[in-house]
Amino acid sequence: MNSRIVILAVVARPLYLVILLASLWVLLRGHNEPGGGFIGGLMAVSATILWGVAHGTTAARARLPLGDAVWPAVIGLLLAAISGVPGLLDGEAYLTHRAWTLAFVSVELKLSTVLLFDIGVYLAVWGALAGYALALLAVDEQEQEGGPA
Amino acid sequence: MIWAVAAALWVSLASGVYLCLSRDVFRVALGLAVVGAGVNLALLASGRLGSVQPAVVPKGQPFLELASNPLPQALVLTAIVIGFALVCFSLALVLGLIRDAGTDDALELRAAEPVPGNDIKPPATDPAHEPEWPPEGRA
Amino acid sequence: MTVTTPNAAMSVAGRALFTLAPVTALAAVLWLLATQALPLTLSWVWIPALDIELAFRIDGLSALMLLMITGVGVAVFVYAGGYLSGHPDQKRAYLLLGLFMVAMIGCVTADHVLVLFVFWEGTSLLSFLLVGFYHERQESRRSAQQSLLVTGTGGLVLLAGFIVLGQTVGSYRLSEIIVLVPTMEVTPTLTLAMGLILVGAFTKSAQFPFHFWLPNAMAAPTPVSAYLHSATMVKLGVYLLARLDPAFGEWPLWVWLLKGVGSVTAAWGMVLALRERDLKRILAWSTVATLGTLVVLVGLRGESAALAVGALLLAHALYKAPLFFVAGNIDHGAGPRLIDRLGGLRRQMPWTAAAALLAAASLAGLPLSFGFVAKDVISEAKSVGEVFTFARMANTVFGTIAVAVAGITAVRVFWLRPPPGAVRQAHEGGAALVLPPLVLGLVGLVLGMFPLLAQDLLAGAAMAMSPAGAGTALTAPLDPQPDVGSLLLGLLFGATVFLLWDRLYRGLEWLAGRTGRIGMSSIYERTLAWIPRVAAGITRRAQNGSLPVYVAWVLASVAVPLATLLWLGRGQWTWPAAEMPSAGLAGAASLVILGAVFACLMRDRLVVLLSVGLIGYGSAVMFLFLGAPDVAYTQFTMETVFVIVAAAVLLKLRRMGLDRAVPEPAWRPGALALSLLVASVLTALLLAVYATPFDPVLSEFFGEQSVPAAYGRNVVNVILVDFRALDTLGEVAVVVLSLLAALPVLQAWRRRARTPVAGGRS
Fold this sequence. Notes:
Number of domains of chain A: 1
Shape of chain A: elongated
Number of helices of chain A: 6
Largest sheet of chain A: 2 strands, antiparallel
Low-confidence stretches of chain B: 133-139
Distance between the termini of chain A: 14 Å
Strand order of the largest sheet of chain A: 1-2
Helix content of chain B: 40-55%
Number of strands of chain B: 0
CATH architecture of the domain at 2-51 and 68-112 in chain B: Orthogonal Bundle
Structural class of chain B: mainly alpha
Low-confidence stretches of chain A: 144-149
Radius of gyration of chain A: 18 Å
CATH topology of the domain at 2-51 and 68-112 in chain B: Helix Hairpins
Shape of chain B: elongated
Number of helices of chain B: 3
Mean pLDDT of chain B: 81
Oligomer: heterotrimer
Distance between the termini of chain B: 59 Å
Helix content of chain A: 55-70%
Largest interface: B-C, 101 and 112 residues
Structural class of chain A: mainly alpha
Order of helices and strands of chain A: HHHHHEEH
C-alpha cells in the first residue's frame, strides 16, 4: 500500500473536478428534477474520498472549502438557518421561502431563499460526512504517514 | 410489490439484528447499518406502493398526478444521511473502544463490573470472563 | 434540654409568632362557624384540561375536624415552644407543623377527591419529616421510613381507588359521589374502587393489618405525636370513611369490612398495649384501638351512630392529646418514660398530675367527663344498630383495657409508690408545658358537664355523615344517663387489668416467646430485606456485563409486547393482496436477501462488509424501481462512501492484529431466534399497516401545492427544503453536531498514533 496506485493518483484530479461539477449540477437542478442538496452533498463527499484515497487525507482535507471539514459543515448550517430569516421579516413563519426573478437583457436569473437553503444543506452534508469519512480513513493511514507525506 | 419489499425487509432486519447480537463490536456497527437499510425500506413502503413514477411534476403541468408518494421519500432521504452519520459515529466509538481497551470482543469489556465482595451486585461467576482486577480495587 | 448556641435557639417572640398561625386559624374557624351557613363551598379552576378544580366544601363534619385541627393545633404549638425549647431545629419543627396544619385543613375541606389526595399525601410526607425530626437517631429514621412507606403506599392505592371511582361514577366531587353512588348498580369496578379506598383509609388510620406503623412513629417528638398520631392525621382515614359512608353505607361488604376490621383493631390494639412498658407506646396502642372503634361506628347504620362518630372523634382529641402532653412532660421532667422506672410523681409534678387525671377520667369514661358522654352515645348507637357478637366482645376488651390504660397513665405513675430503681429527680415544666394539657382537659370537663354545648357541632357532623334524615336522634339533647351497673362492672374489670398489668405483661411476653416473631412488623421487615435481594438478582441477570445480553434485553422488551399485541389483534387485520412484483424489484429484493444471508454466514469481516454493501445497493435499486430516484441516488452514494470508509477501518484493525474473528460460535441459535422474532414482528406490523386504508391528504397537498406555491417540480426536494424545511434544518444540525462529537474520539486516536510510546492511555 505504500506505493499508491499510480493510475488512481493520475485520474484523481480530473475526476475530482468532474464529480464536484456534477454535484453542483445535481444541487442546482434539484428543485425541478431528481437531485438536491443531500444528493449533491453526498456526491461531493465521494469526490473528497477519491482524493483522500489517491493523495492522502491531509491533502483531501486541504482541498475542502476553507481547508477543513468542520467549516463547510458549520457554514452550511448557518446558511440554511439564515435562509429562513427573510420570511420571518415579512411577518410569516420562519423558513417561509421567498423568490425573486432578476431579468437581465435576455437572461432570467431566478434567486430564492430556497436555493440558499439547499446550498446550506449541500455544504453541511459535504462537510459533516466528509469530516467523518476523512477521520476514519486517516485512522488507517497513520503508519505510513511519517514517511512520504 | 409489497410482498417483495416485505421479504427484503424481513431478511435484512433479521440479519441486522443477528449481527447486532454479536460479540464482535465491528459486526455490531455493521448490523446497525443493515437495520437502518431495512427500516428505510419499511418507511418507504408505509406510504403505500402504487405508481412507480418519480414524484416529479411533469413540465407544464400544475400538479402531481399518478406518481409515487413523495412524503415518505423525503423522510427516507434524510434518514439515509442520518443513518450514515450514525454508523460513522459508531465506527468512531468502535475505534475509540479498541484504542482504550485493546479488544474488539464485547465480552472482554468488564470495566464496569462490580468488584468482588459487592453483595448488592455480586460479580459474575463465569471464570472465562473474569476481569483482571487492579491490585487496589477500583475507586 | 441542652443549651445550644444562642443564635440557634429561638426567642420567645419567635415562638409566639409561630403560635400565631394556629391561633389565627382557630379564630377563622370560629368566625366561620359563627357567621356562615354551612355547607360553604369555594372553588377555583386549577387544571382545566383534566377537569380538576380546587373545590372546597365545608360542612358539619369538616367543621368538627377543623375545630380539632386548629384547636389542638394551638395547644401543640404552645407545647412545642416549651418541649423543644433550645433545640437547634425548633424552627424546623414549627415550619413543618404549620405546613402540616395547612395540609390537614386542605384535606378535610377538599371536595374534589384528587385535591383531597394531594393534601392527603402532603400529610404523609410531613409526617415522615416530623417522625424523623430527631434525624440523628437511627430509630427515628427507621420509623419515619416505615410510616412513609405504609401511608405513602396506602396513599397511592387510594389514588387508584379515587380514579376508578371517579371514572365509574363520572364525577370527582365528593358531594356528587355520595349522591350518585347509592343510585348505581354494584359492579365489580365499583367494588374494586371501594376496596382500594378502604386500603388507603386503613393504612392512614393504622387499622389491622397496617396497625404496626403507628406505635413506631412514637419516635417523633411528643408534640408531633400528640398532633399527628392521636388528634388529627390518623383520624383522616376515619374522616374519609365517614365522608364516603353515605355512598357505600348500604353495601353489606362495606359494612362488614368496617365492622370486622375495626373490631379486630380495637381489641388487638388494646391487647398489644399490654406488651408495652413505654408510656407513649401504651398510649399509641390505645389510639390504634380507638381508631378501630371509630371505624366500627362508621360501619354502624343509623343517625345515632353518626352522632357517636363525632362524639368519639372530639372526645378522643380532647383526652389523648393531653395524655401525650403528660407523657412528654414526664420524659421532659423526669427522664425515662418506662413505667417500671416511674411512680409517685405527683409531688414533683402536681399540675401535670392534675391534667393527667382530667384526661384519664375521660379515657376511662367516668361520669362528668366528655368521654362519658361519648360512651353513652356509643352504647345508644349500638342498641339501635345491628352489632354482631364479635364486635361486642371486642368493644368489651377495648373498654376494659382503656380503663386500665387510664389507670396506668394517671394513677400508677403519679400516685402509686415508686418501684425500686425509679427516678427520684423530677421537676415540673414551665407554663408552656403545663397549660396545654390542663386547658384541653378542662375543655373536656366543661363539655362533659354541659354536653349541650357540643350539641350543634356534633349534630352538624352527624348530618354530614347521614344526610338522608334529620331524625329525632340528632335533635334529642345530649343527656347521658349513668347506667350504674354497667359503669361499675366496667370499672371493676378495668381495675383488675390495671392491677394485673405486670403479670399480664409477663404472660404475654412468655406467649410471644413461644410463638416467635409472626407479627406484621416482622413481615414488613422481611419484605424490606427482600427488596434489595430481588433487585440484586434482577440486576445480576439483566446487566451481567455482556453487551449482547443488553442488546437482547432491549430488543426483546420491544418485540415481545409488540408481538403479543399483534397476536391479540390478529382478527382485526388482513394481509395485503398478493401481486406479482416487477422483475426489477424482484431482482433487487433478491440482492438484498442474498447480501443479508451472506452477512450472517460469513466469518471474514471484509466479506461481511461487502455483503452489507450488497444490501445497501440492493435497497437502492429497490428504491429506483419503487419510483424514488432521489432516494436511490442518495443510497448509492452513501453506500459507496460507507464501504470505502469501513474498509479503511477494517484494514487498520487487520494491521493491529485484530483481524481474526472474535471467538464466538459460528451459530448462535438464541440470537437467531430473537432476530427472527424482531424481524417478523416489524414485518408483520408493516403488513398490518399496509392493509389499512391510507389517508393521502398530506401527500396530495404536497403534490398539488408544489408547483404553484413553491415553484418546484421535484416534490420530494420541495418537501425537504420548503414545506418541511425546519425538520431538514434540524436533521442537518444533528449530523453536523454528531461529527463534532465524534471528532475528539478520532483525533485522540491520531494523537496516540503519532506518539506511540508516550506512556499508555491519555
